Each structure stands twice: as structure tokens, then as C-alpha cells.
Amino acid sequence: MISEKDKILIERARTCDNCLCWHDVCNAECCRIAILNIPPALLPTKGKWLKVRYPLFVDSRWYFRMRGVKHTHGFLKYPLEKCKVEDGRIIYHQDCSALKGNLCSGHPSYKPQPCKKLTMNYVRKGGKDIYLTPNCLFRYKLMGEELDEENKKSEEAENKRAAQE
Fold first, then answer.
1. Whole-angstrom Cα distance, residue 62 to residue 43?
2. How far apart are alpha carbons 23 and 136 in whole angstroms?
3. 86, exposed or middle or buried, with CB in 10 Å at 0-12, 13-18, 19+?
4. Which parts of the chain register pLDDT below 50?
5. 93 forms bridges with which residues in the sheet?
6. What span, in angstroms and rounded, lies between the C-alpha atoms of 30 and 131?
7. CA distance linking residue 124 with residue 13, whole number of Å
8. 138/121 Cα distance (integer angstroms)
9. Phi, psi for 51 (deg, rounded to 5)
10. For residues 77 and 70, is the Cβ–Cβ distance under 8 A?
11. pLDDT for 45
12. pTM over 0.90
């Protein structure tokens, strides 16, 4: 069941074609966190760093550097105090250094590829390496598409019943 607040946001998302018009809702959540695709059981309980072996390309090196993550000898080093387990995932909480208030100073083209690829088309294709934050525009756009599909099916069933009578 969709709440009234969600219905309002779904309708608003239908008229919003990019993240800039949505920042008053999401507060640029995706620029303030990074999702670590490793099991939460691997989160150390002591020490200063969470180390993850991760091959980096130039663009992803830039992406992680902008989030305060160190890269040494093939490992990403996340400050442990900024890593939390939420919803069965490890979430690293750190604002991107390009974030000025709620706006990316590199928008739209001067930002790393991981940021550029977050589009509605990528989300629709089931981008496995992305995480839609709770207030993400694309989450509400997807909810709207699902709602439209449900309404279409209900309408078709109703029309079929009416035709049979």
C-alpha cells in the first residue's frame, strides 16, 4: 500500500526530469554515502580502517578520492568510524568533496563516471552496482511506473468483465 506522502512524491517525480529539481526532497543523499558490496560480517569491530581489495581505474580512483577513501596497494581504505551496517549493507557516510550544499560543483559533465551513469535508463535496466537511496527521484519514478502498470492491469480486467456482461 502506498502512503499519501508517497503518492504526492510520485506525482511530483513525474514532472521532474533530473536530480536538480529533486534535491529539496532527497538532500543529495547519493552524494553523501557509498554502498560497499561486501558482507556486513566483514566489517571489523576494531581498528581505524575497513580495507577492501578493489581494482581501480582512473575514474573510480577519482570517485573514491572525492569521498575521502584512501587507495594503497590495491586496497580501498575506508575510515571505520564512517562505516555503518544499515539494511543488511555496509554504508559509508561521507559527503563528496564536490558537493556544495545540495549541488554538485561538477554537474553535469565534470564528475566521475560512477556518478554520471545514475540515470533513469540505467536504473530501468537494473543497474546492479547502484543503490537508490530512500528519497531518490528514480525510486519514486519507478514506483510511479509500477503504479501505472497496476492501474493498467486493473482497468483491462474491468473492461474484460464489462465486455462479458
1. 24
2. 9
3. exposed
4. none
5. 33
6. 8
7. 15
8. 10
9. -105, 130
10. yes
11. 84
12. no
